[in-house]
Amino acid sequence: MENWSLVSICVLFGLTARWAVSLNSYSGAGKPPMFGDYEAQRHWQEVTYNLPVHEWYFNTTDNNLNYWGLDYPPLTAYHSLLCAHDHGFDFCWVLVADLLIYIPAVVLYSFYLSEGSNKKKVCTVLCILLYPGLILIDYGHFQYNSISLGLALWGVVVLGLGWDVLGSLAFVLSLNYKQMELYHSLPFFCYLLGKCFKQGLAGRGLFLLVKIAVTVLVTFALCWLPFLSDPGQILQVVHRLFPVGRGLFEDKVANTWCSLNVLIKIKTILSTDTQLYFSLTTTLLAILPSSIKLLMKPTLWQFKLALVNSSLAFFLFSFQVHEKSILLPALPVCLLLNDLPLPAIWFLQASTFSMLPLFLKDGLLVPYVVTSLAFLFFSIYLLSAFEHCSEDKLRLGCLRHLPSLIPGSFYFSITAMAGLSFMSVALAPPDQLPDLFPLLVSVFSYLHFLGLLLYFNIVQIAEPLQSVRKNQKKSN
Amino acid sequence: SVMATPRADDWSWFPALALGVSFLKCILINAYHSTDFEVHRNWLAITHSLPVSKWYHENTSEWTLDYPPLFAWFEYSLSHVAQHFDKEMLVVQNLIYTSPATILFQRLSVIVTDIVFIYAVKECCRSVREEKGSKDLLGHPFFILAALLLWNFGLLIVDHIHFQYNGFLFGILLLSVARHLQGRHLEGALLFTVLLNLKHIYLYIAPAYGIFLLRSYCFTKDNTDGSVRWSSFSPVRLVALGSIVISVGALSFGPFIAMGQLPQVLSRLFPFKRGLCHAYWAPNVWALYNMVDKALSVLGVRLKLLDVAKLPKASMTGGLVQEFQHSILPSVSPSITLICTLCPTLQPKPHPPPSLALSPPAKFHIWCRPRGARGFLRCLVVCALGSFMFGWHVHEKAILMAILPFSILAVESREDAGIFLMLTTTGHYSLFPLLFTAAELPIKVLLMLLFTLYSFTSLKKLFRGSLLNPLETTYLLGLVAVEILCEVVYPLSPWQHTLPFVPLLVTSVYCSLGVSYSFIRLYVSLLRQHGTDKHKQL
C-alpha cells in the first residue's frame, strides 16, 4: 500500500484514540470549588474575552488571580481568546490543534529525518502518536501541550532540514506559548551557535547569527506587543510565569528534590533562596557536558540527544517542577524511538507511569491502562525493540556486559510498574502514610529517570567528534 | 521483523490486529450507549433473579425477553460473573441502572465474547484462496480479510458504542461458514443451529443452509455435468443433520415446551404488531416505497387530485412504531414482505432451453448447479441482503448480516470487491443515525474514514486498478454532501424544529439507492455465474 494511505490510517487511528480518551472523565470534573485544568481553560477564555489586555495578568476585582490566574505566556492568552469565540466544544479545539500542528510535525519528522524503510517510518509515526502521556494529559486531564510541543517539534524538523531561521522562529513561538519550553532552549541555542561557529564567525556564520538573533527578537516583540507599552506589565507577566516564591517543589514529583525529601527534609532545612541557588547550580552542572558537546558537534543526532539530556536534567533538578513537565523530555525521546527503541520505550512508559497519581485523581484509570498496554505492545512489536539490544545497537561501547541484563531488567521494571499501579488502585494506604503510593510511584520513576539520564548522556558524549559512526548509523 | 516477507506459518500479525481493535474497544467503554444497554441489563436481572418459568412472562420493564432460550441461558451464565461487579444490576426493579461497575462489566462482556469472532475470523482467513508468489504482508488477501472483518466499522459502532452482542453472534455465523468452506459440514450445521437458537433473525438465511446441506451434503456425488445424482442420496447424513437440529432445539426450547410455555415464547419472538418500517427507516425497498408514496400524496394534494382529509393520519415519519397505511400505493402487509423475500430465492422457473440465457433464481441455482461452499456463501449473502431489502420491520443493523460474510468473497474476486465497496460504504453510512450524540460525532466520522480508506486502498492494491466506475464514485462522494447537510447545514436551518425527521429521511432514502443497486449487481453476478455454467456445459 502506498505511504500516504498507511500514514493517513495511522493518523486517523491516533485521532480516534485521542477523542475516545476525551470521552472519559476530565480534570476536576464535578469537584468544586476549584475544579481542575478544564475549568482553568474555561476561565481563561472568560478573562481574555471580557477584560482588556492590560488587565489579563493583574489581580483586579474582575480578575482574581488566585482562581486559576493566567500563568502562561501571551500566546496561550491569545489562543484562549480565539477559543472563546466558539465556546462549543473545547475538546474539539485540542483535536484541531493536534491535527494542524503536532501530527504534521510528527509525520514530517518520520519521513524526512529518520532512517529505515518506508514501513519502518510508518511504524514510527504510529508509535509516536500512541505515546500515552501526551494523549492522557491533553485529552484526559485537558491541556494544550500539543501546541507548544508541536511547535517545538516543528522547530526541530525545520532545523533538521537546514532552515535555521524558520526553525528558530518556530521555537520562539513555542516558547511564547508555554514557558516550560525553556527546558529545550539551551540545546536550540547551542545547536544554532555551534552551526554559526562551524560556518566561521568571521563570515557566513556571523551573518547567520545576526539573522537568527533578529528573528528571535522580532518574534518576541510581536508576541508581547500589547504588553510592551508598560514595563510594569512585562514585569507582572514575568512574575506570573516564574513564581519563584513557591518553593522547590509542590506535591509529589519524580525529581531529585522530592525524592531527597524522603531522606532529608530539605524543604524545611534550607531557606527558599538557598534552595533556589542549590537547584540552579545542580541544573547547570547537569546540562553542561551535553551542551558543550553539542556546541562542538552540531549534528541532528547530537541535537536530539541534547534535547533529551537538557530537558531531563531540568526536570530532575529544577525548582517548581510539575509532574506534567515530564512531557518535555518525552517529546525528544519519541524522536529516538527509531534509533534506540528499547531505552526510548522504557523511558516513555516510565514517564506515563510517573503521572499515575494524577490520572487516578482525574478518573482516567481505564484509559491509562489501555493506552499503556497498547503503546508497549505496539512499539515493542513494530519496532522490534528486543532485536536491537546488542551493545552495538545501544551505543554502549564501553560497558560490555550491560546489554545482556537489559531485557530482564525491562520486564522486571514493567512488572513492578504494573504491580504498583494495581496497588495504588486496589489497596488503601496505611493511616500513618497516606501518601505512600504516590511517593513510591515518584521514587520508582525517579530512579528510572536518573538511570536513563546517565545513559543518554553517555551515548551523547561517547560519540567521537569525527564522524566514524556514520557507517553504524546507516546500518540501522 | 514484522514487515519482512511472511512465512506461511508466521501469523504474528494476527494477534496484533486483534489486540489493536480490542484496545480501541476498551477506550470506548465510557462512550454513549443506547437503550439496548438497559435491555441486556434487564435480561441479566431476569435470568439471574427469577426462576426459568417466569423468564418469558416477566414484564416489569418494557424490554421483555424476545430472543430464543439459548440466549437467555447465555445471559444467565454472564449474570454469575456480573454479581462480582455489582449485585444491584441484577435486581429486576432497578430499571435503567447504570453504575460504573455495571457499565464496565457489560462493556467488558461484549469485548471478551468477541473472542469467538476473532477465532472465526482466523478460521476464515485460513480458508481464503490466494495466489502464490511473494507479496508483502499487507497485500495478502488473508491479511486484508482479517482487517476488514476485525476492524469492521459497523460492528464496532453497533457493538461497542450502541451496545449489542453481534460480535459473538456473527462469530458463530462466520465460524459456521468457515467450517463449510473447509468441508466440515456437520460442525457448520451444528454451529448454525446454535446460532438460530441464540437469535432467530438468522432464520432469514436458514433456507440457504437448508438447501445447500441437503443438496451438497446429503447427496454425496454429482453427475459429470454437475446436476443432481438421485441415487447418491445418503439417509445416514440426513439423519445426522436432523438429529443435530433436533437436539439443539430440544436443549434450547425443551424446558419451555415441558412447561407448556411454547406459545408464549413464540409470541415474544415474533411480535408482528410492529409496523412495516422501524422508527428510522432501514435503507431498503420499503424506504423507497414509502418515499414514493409520500411524494405522490404531496403531489396529489398540491395538484388538487386528492383531498387532504381523506388521507390516513398516522404518519410513517413520526417516531413511533405504529401500524399505518400508505396513502396512494397499496399497503404492505407482513405476508407480502415474506413472499417478496422468498420470491427472488425460491420461485421455480421452467428449465430453460440451452440457447437462451434465462435466469433461475438463487436457491434453484444452488440446487441445479452447486459450486461448492463458495456458491453457498454467495447464496447466503444474497439471502441476507434480500431479506434486508424486502423484510418486515427491518433494523438498519441487519445490513451487517450481508456485509460480514460478503467480505470473504470480496477478497477473492474483482467484481465482488467492487460491489463490496459500494455496499459497505453505503451500508455503514446508513448506521450513522444510530449515534446521534454530539460527542460521538468525531468518533463515527473518524472510524468511518479509517475503514473506508483502508477498504478502498487495500482492495484497489489487491486487484490492481480502479474498482468503481465514475458514477458509483460520484454517488459515494455524495454521501459526504449528505453528511454535511444532515449534521451541519440542517440543524442551523429554520426547519429543524418543524420537520426534525428530514435528515433521517434523506439518509435512509439516499442509502437505499446504493443498497438496492448493490443487491441488483450481486444478483446479476450470481445469475451470470449460472449462465457461464450452462455455457460450459454445452
From TrEMBL, chain A:
Protein topology in the membrane: Multi-pass membrane protein
Segments traversing the membrane: 88-110, 122-139, 151-175, 205-227, 300-319, 326-348, 368-389, 410-430, 436-456
GO cellular component: endoplasmic reticulum membrane
Domain of life the protein comes from: Eukaryota
Keywords on record: Endoplasmic reticulum, Glycosyltransferase, Membrane, Signal, Transferase, Transmembrane, Transmembrane helix
Main location: endoplasmic reticulum
Catalytic activity reported: an alpha-D-Man-(1->2)-alpha-D-Man-(1->2)-alpha-D-Man-(1->3)-[alpha-D-Man-(1->2)-alpha-D-Man-(1->3)-[alpha-D-Man-(1->2)-alpha-D-Man-(1->6)]-alpha-D-Man-(1->6)]-beta-D-Man-(1->4)-beta-D-GlcNAc-(1->4)-alpha-D-GlcNAc-diphospho-di-trans,poly-cis-dolichol + a di-trans,poly-cis-dolichyl beta-D-glucosyl phosphate = an alpha-D-Glc-(1->3)-alpha-D-Man-(1->2)-alpha-D-Man-(1->2)-alpha-D-Man-(1->3)-[alpha-D-Man-(1->2)-alpha-D-Man-(1->3)-[alpha-D-Man-(1->2)-alpha-D-Man-(1->6)]-alpha-D-Man-(1->6)]-beta-D-Man-(1->4)-beta-D-GlcNAc-(1->4)-alpha-D-GlcNAc-diphospho-di-trans,poly-cis-dolichol + a di-trans,poly-cis-dolichyl phosphate + H(+)
MF-aspect GO terms: dolichyl pyrophosphate Man9GlcNAc2 alpha-1,3-glucosyltransferase activity
Signal peptide: 1-22
E.C. numbers: 2.4.1.-
Localization, UniProt: Endoplasmic reticulum membrane
Pathway assignment: Protein modification; protein glycosylation
Record function comment: Dolichyl pyrophosphate Man9GlcNAc2 alpha-1,3-glucosyltransferase that operates in the biosynthetic pathway of dolichol-linked oligosaccharides, the glycan precursors employed in protein asparagine (N)-glycosylation. The assembly of dolichol-linked oligosaccharides begins on the cytosolic side of the endoplasmic reticulum membrane and finishes in its lumen. The sequential addition of sugars to dolichol pyrophosphate produces dolichol-linked oligosaccharides containing fourteen sugars, including two GlcNAcs, nine mannoses and three glucoses.
Family according to the record: Belongs to the ALG6/ALG8 glucosyltransferase family.
Record protein name field: Alpha-1,3-glucosyltransferase
TrEMBL record, chain B:
Transmembrane segments: 12-32, 137-157, 163-181, 201-218, 238-258, 375-394, 431-454, 475-493, 499-520
Keywords, in A-Z order: Endoplasmic reticulum, Glycosyltransferase, Membrane, Transferase, Transmembrane, Transmembrane helix
Subcellular localization, as worded in the UniProt entry: Endoplasmic reticulum membrane
Domain of life: Eukaryota
Molecular function, one GO term: dolichyl pyrophosphate Glc1Man9GlcNAc2 alpha-1,3-glucosyltransferase activity
Pathway(s) it belongs to: Protein modification; protein glycosylation
EC number from the UniProt entry: 2.4.1.-
Subcellular location, principal: endoplasmic reticulum
Topological type in the membrane: Multi-pass membrane protein
Entry protein name: Alpha-1,3-glucosyltransferase
Native species: Oncorhynchus tshawytscha
